[in-house]
Amino acid sequence: MTLAFEKRKTVSRTAIVVVPVVSFVASLVLTGALLMIFGANPLATYAAMFKGAFGSGRALTETLVKAIPLSLTGLGVALAFRLKFWNIGAEGQLTLAGVAATGVALFWSPWLPAPLLLPVMVLVGCAAGAAWAGVPALLKTRLNVDETLVTLMLNYVAILFSEFLYYGPWRDPKGFGFPGTRMFPKEAWFPRIAGRAHVGLYLALVAAAVLWFVLNRTRWGFELKVIGNSPKAARYQGISVERNILLAVLLSGAICGLAGVGEVAGISRRLQQGLSLGYGFTAIIVAWMAQLNPLAIPFVAVLMGGLLVGGDQVQMVMGLPSSIGLLMQGMILFPMLAGSLFTEYRIKRVGGQAVRESETGAV
Amino acid sequence: MEDTANEVPLVEMRGICKSFPGVRASDEVDLRLERGEVLALLGENGAGKSTLMNILSGLYRQDSGDVFIRGEKVDIRSPRDAADLGIGMVHQNFMLIDTMTVAENVVLGMPSLPFVPDMAVVKRSILELGERYNMTVDPDAYIWQLSVGEQQRVEILKQLYRNAEILVLDEPTAVLTPQESHELNDVVKRMQAEGKSAVFITHKMDEVMAFADRVMVLRKGRVVAEKTTRDTDPKDLARVMVGREVLFHIEKGPFEPGAVVLELKDVCADDERGLPALRELSLSLRAGEILGIAGVAGNGQRELSEVITGLRPVKSGGISINCVDSTNKTPLQIIRSGVSHIPSDRMAVGAVGDMSVANNLAMKDYRAAPISKGIMLLPRRILEFARKMISAFNIATPSPETRVKFLSGGNIQKTILAREIESCGSLLIAVYPSRGLDIGATESVRNELVAQRDAGKAVLLVSEDIDEILSVADTVAVMYDGRAVGVMPTAGADPEEIGLLMAGIDPSEKETRL
Amino acid sequence: MGLITSLIAITLRAGTSLVYATIGETYAERAGILNLGLEGIMLMGAVSSFATAYYTGSLGLAIVVALGVGGLMALIHAFLSITMKANQVVSGLSITLFGTGFASFLGQRLGPESNGRYLIGLTGPRFAPIDVGALGKVPILGAILGQDLFTYGIYLLIPLAWFYLYRTKNGLWLRAIGENPRTADAMGVAVDRAKYGYTVFGGMLTALGGAHLALAYTPGWSENITGGRGWIVIALVIFSMWNPGRAITGALIFGGINAVQFRLQASGTNVPAAFLNMLPYLATIVVLVAITWWEALSKRVGSPASLGQPYVREDK
């Protein structure tokens, strides 16, 4: 008797919820095993991480601070992934949007009316993110160039470009050699809600809701769904595949760009080292764990934000490397990917006894 | 064959059962094959013929039952096991690798091949084998350069090269011209003369009569009859195969063509590789007419449907629909001008397997009320619409929310048909609409096409089944090498003449030569 | 040494790690498995080999460890994408995310107490260029011979990898699997076993590329030691049209760009360093666009037809 996989007729609804939860637990166990190998007590470590991420008001707001860009980039990435456009350039789109918003804050503030400054920063930032995503999208739709690599390479280019600016022409002359631009004028600051958590939180929640609505309740969303499942069928139905992919990826880049605007206007209030902390990559984990569902993304983002903040705390409290958060994140997708098999397939025994089945669906 | 009667059979399968989700593909099947015998497995699509042979060739595993080869019980776990036992299968979809040469394909997977093979030796033996069986192929040619008939020769050579004693041919003539089929029959007869055996899967009665010594008829996974071909005739076989008298009777109104709906003038277009697929093709089709396009697959039929529907650019020439120029318009513009299209590739193009039946049904009508309102889509209306269509077209599905890929081929086709007919304005293009369907589904598809014609629409029917065209269409055109070579009314058309046109032979020339 | 000779020398040294990974990934992709985890595997290869060499002093053992670590990482990807039929893009990305995180963790944990448990900033044993005496003075030849053992390895690996793929039975099987696994399976090739084997092999070679960075090219460990080489390799595989014989060209181009970039930086040019540092990434994009364009114009498709798709035998 052997085991074989058999495709399910409908996606298992329980598996959709259970698989991410089990995956998270499995990653805790796997990381725990690694921690033990390296001589640390996993339970104490997790307790410290949890306390560091959610244990106090300050911890909670810090977790939210990370969850905001993770939510936004997660949404952007999820939108592109739904079209099987592998945008792993969220990092670059975020960075370039941060640069663009910085440019507006620093150089347009003298002649823009104060109440208009923030909206213009957001618009210009989103446009920059969209443009940065537009390059691979155009190359993909016009010339069929692999988007995975182009989006990724553009990350490096954007980050190096931002470094050039804050080390070079945009560096604050009064910054004592510190690499970074001067502080934005007050009108260019995102209002804060609690601690360092800023209004980007509302923007992220609104973006999630709007994206869900667009994908599930509009004609365009329906078209994107057809394209994502079968571009050939979409073309045959008269849906313009190239144009829609381009539009969706521009939107994806704009949402990722919003995250970058939030980072410079809400957190650092200047452009400096550390704008890109790998959010664009963690976004992939967020999107995939949320199974590309926009409504689930903010929740997963809080969880992942917690891992990052908790990791930093563990370094301070227990002397363990802060990269433990990164390690756990990397670990989460493995059980998740393995588990998706169970939403699509079920296990069937072959040999020995005949499996008798006669269900509807066949004529 | 008298002296083999008391010997053990070459192949014996006993009580074979195999299920797929929702289908019982093989149900307690027994099969015997003697040495030097050609056995035909006859049955409709989905009767379980291919499943049975896939088990014999190690591609599938039976759920229960035993296989004996030369009297010994064997456990065929993989195609390699089957090859070791001398079983070779020529699949319906050729198991060839397009980007490799004939010689590389012939030796692929042979365990006895040396680690660093001497391809010169391989090529020489291929040429020798080709001479022996009178089917020459250039061993250095790449598969993609070969015609379908030549590719089939490579498949057979591959098995002969491995000294297959038992050759399984899965619907070998489906892709061949009548003339190529005769050549195939010669090869099989030569093999038989050398003491090799063959199992022949088919659903065409006259081929059973021409090729086989004995025939086994399957229906819904069970053996329903076993006869020697001497003691039967095509009519008898057809009755057993379907389980009732087959009377392909299609109710058709009188042929009263109206205005010209579709006109193609000297259309040229290329295929994916940039080679000409349509060469100055001209056609015209009127309202209330079914124009059947006959021909061996790959002579430009798919490209023809694609240039009309805007999926493939026209290089020169012009297309007009209802007297409006529609050359190189976008697919959406052409859909809006009232054209519906049932594409040849059901799963990759016609339907989206991972979306629900309801969504698939709404895939054309979602653009307008009542399914959408402005830019908004109304999911509840989609379900209402789907329920209506499911009952109107008798689509068997557990629910409107079931993913389409879990329906049977016939019901997937009905889903596409329902959507295309619902949205059809004046022209319906159906490409191989009954390919792979069982007789019941085929009948309902054909009747639906005729109903559209009777309702005054123009129908372009592309088919490789001459009988289908002769019984459904009003006019027939044969496509050969990107051209429409013979346009004639189906009433009184001679199938033999169409067959010759399909093979690229001009019947009138042949007569003068005779 | 003449300018050309020294350029060749630097280029070969910079390109060596790329050649290992390119050939490894070529084999995996020929078997239909796209592994976007190369960057993570390379990092793990670098950190594990450096730590081994640092503590044991044995370069041989360091290489063995790198091979083992690379093989294990690729095995995870193989398991997820072959047995569990997961999305290969996402599985590969998660290997990179995991590898990046784990390598960084190890780099902050495995070091000696005296260095705050960091591996960063330490020096260990390294592969030095081989002294070929007077031959080293011969123009061009001297550049080719005056290299470390890793680079000598590619002189052997490239022709062998080419010969195996195009002239042996197993190479024929491998090409068939990537093009059409169903056919290969029907013809008796053990498809899944081969996919596992070549994916793991690819991971081992990739980790070797990482080891070359940490043990020879830029000896030591730093978190950004690969600088995206794992990604560039994915582009190089495309550039070489999945032919291991051509793996050298791409690697030389990128090795060359690296070399030129260092030269310019050293010579104190006016171009800001950030822009020079962008060169390899921009070049990757340009190369990718050019090769895709050329493929479209010449109607050639180089990629294995089944690349990235899971294979299920009884998928009905």
Structural notes for this entry:
The complex is a heterotrimer of chains A (363), B (514) and C (316). Chain A has 363 residues and is mainly alpha-helical. Chain A is 69% helix and 5% strand. Chain A contains 13 helices and four strands. Chain A has a two-stranded antiparallel sheet with strand order 1-4. In chain A, strands 2-3 form a two-stranded antiparallel ribbon. In chain A, helix 2 (42-54) packs across helix 12, helix 3 (57-82) packs parallel to helix 7 and helix 4 (90-108) runs antiparallel to helix 5 (114-143). The two termini of chain A are 30 Å apart. With 514 residues, chain B is of the alpha/beta class. Chain B has three domains: 2-242, P-loop containing nucleotide triphosphate hydrolases (Rossmann fold, 3-Layer(aba) Sandwich); 249-338 and 424-514, 3-Layer(aba) Sandwich (Rossmann fold); 351-422, no CATH class. Chain B contains 18 helices and 22 strands. In chain B, a hairpin with a 2-residue loop joins strand 17 (372-373) and strand 18 (376-377). Residues 1-5 and 510-514 of chain B have low confidence and may be disordered. Chain C is an all-alpha fold and 316 residues long. Chain C has a single domain, classed as ABC transporter involved in vitamin B12 uptake, BtuC (Orthogonal Bundle), CATH 1.10.3470. Helices cover 69% and strands 0% of the residues of chain C. Chain C has twelve helices and no strands. Chain C has helices at 3-30, 38-56, 59-83, 88-109, 141-145, 149-167, 169-179, 181-186, 191-217, 229-239, 247-266, 273-297. In chain C, helix 1 (3-30) crosses helix 6 (149-167), helix 1 (3-30) runs antiparallel to helix 9 (191-217) and helix 3 (59-83) runs antiparallel to helix 4. Chains in contact: A-B, A-C, B-C. The interface between A and C is large, with 52 and 46 residues.
